[in-house]
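Q: Convert this sequence to structure tokens.
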Amino acid sequence: MLTSVDTDLLRVLADPLRLQIVTLLAKETLCSTHLIEETGARQTNLSNHLKVLREAGVVETEPCGRFTYYRLKPDVIASLAGQFADLAETARATAEHHVKRSCP
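A:
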């Protein structure tokens, strides 16, 4: 079963713009200027979403002169994917063994 931390991470990733940012960062490390161009989001809106992603541990930053680059932390995504794989495996086993709770 997913823990409350995982639920928090799911909420973070459920936002369409944050998911778009994560998808872009999976392909390359980008600065906020690149992310604004790619997403069409306003600077303040993008900054707020990046802050949420940083605080959730999904992205890390790398200062470079006057710019800040953002990089996806793949282990966080892999851990979440692994938990979903475990959940799917439990569901398969339940279906194969016809596990069903009887009604009172």
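Residues 74-96 form the longest helix (23 residues).
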